[in-house]
Amino acid sequence: MSITRSFLCALPLFGGVVAFSAMGQTAQRGGYVVAIDSESAKHPAWTRVAQALCEKHSGRIEVYPKGNVDTLLPQLRKSAPRHVCFVSAPECVGRELVVGAAQLIRRIDDDPFGDALWGIVTGYDAADALRMASHSEPFVVRNAATSMGGVGFFKEWDGGFASDEGNRNRFWVKGQDGQAICRHVEPDQAESLADAFNTISVDYWCTSGHASERNWQIVYNQNAGFIVHKNGFLYSRDTSGALFPILSLNPKVYVAAGNCLIGHIDKQDCMTTAWMHSGGVSQMVGYTVVTFYGFMGWGVKSLFESGRHSLAEAFFLNNQILLWKLNRLNPKLRDRRIDPKGKFSTREMIVSMNGIVKTKDELGLFWDRDTVAFYGDPAWDVRCPEKRRDIDVAIDGRNITVRFLREVKFPDSIDSKDMRPVGVLLSTPSSGSSIVSANSGAALDGAVVTDFFALMPITGTHAKGETLKFRFE
Questions:
Q1: I need a surface site. Which of 83, 259, 309, 459 has the fewest CB within 10 A?
Q2: Helix (H, G, I), strand (E, B), or coil: what is residue 346?
Q3: What's the topology of domain 5-134?
Q4: Nearest CA to 402 among 467, 320, 311?
């Protein structure tokens, strides 16, 4: 029988309103748990990574048998942490850990939603992971880069650069003068991308287009340059086959919003670990499977760029919004577990559902639910500038105030495909309270409250300066 081993840091290492309350045996939510698998824990370099996180956050270390994160559940239920960070050598990560961790986090208490911010700290080697674990100061994104180029991208960034997935010969740079200039490049954008990464410090990198564990295609559906990797290092390869090394070690976050498989660490040397090793990436969101629906990828990008949430919070809250939508479409799917070791093909998943999945939306949400990875320390606070915010959410005791900083349009129905409730993390447990609109005095239809967060479906158009007030009843 396998059991987890717990260590303190001081010890040496080896339909309407929906309300949910935590399990009776859980303490008030808080604290930080570092979970390291038994194989990684055999190596001093990787135990030092776990120790560094533990000391930084005054946390607790749990060692679990490789491939069996479920053995962590009793300790997580007992301690009810606010953050859970999985530390693993790249050979011990894979899709299995991502899916297993996503499902584990929802089972810490009895409600069907996520119960902690979580992430995976890994790297091409332990030195990469230790660097990722060392970040402590809040980090505000100022300069950004994207594969979806255009002058509009740069509007609220101080500087950066952009390739263009639709045109191999266009490359954008925003300089210190504040002007975004489009350059004509030949034969494609590969050399320009490498040069930009090597000479311009960007804090945020966001991509779409075709990708795999081995490469990323610079221009959508064209053989017009790739980002590739070898021995932990990134290279940009142009149409002729010429290679341009990328060494961009300043800290940055990467949201692979529309890329297949790029977040899947299938072995030590892959795209994710190369971005961590030679690309300076310290937090990353990416798919471990082929993506066709995109709710998690594009949703995290949207929430993060809104300026309301850190990247870790955007990842967590977008997943809770997904569960909320999935529950309204098909409650049978929300809690259905999938085998972390199983084969992940849409055809096999449809067959395994035996007719439970009825629409593409249901399948898409279920497909995205557990298959997107968050890499990095989930407590490291990385945010976009406040000037990007459209909504400000403040909590005072049992009162929530939503203030609109610009005109915001929500769907007219909470069951609209485009509805995304406004989410907020709670600093203290709510004891399963419901949410009531102070403006109307009525219960907020479709609202969800757990002891960790609240989701508020807001409908209609709201003008700049307008406020909505809610309270826990």
A1: 459
A2: helix
A3: Rossmann fold (3.40.50)
A4: 467
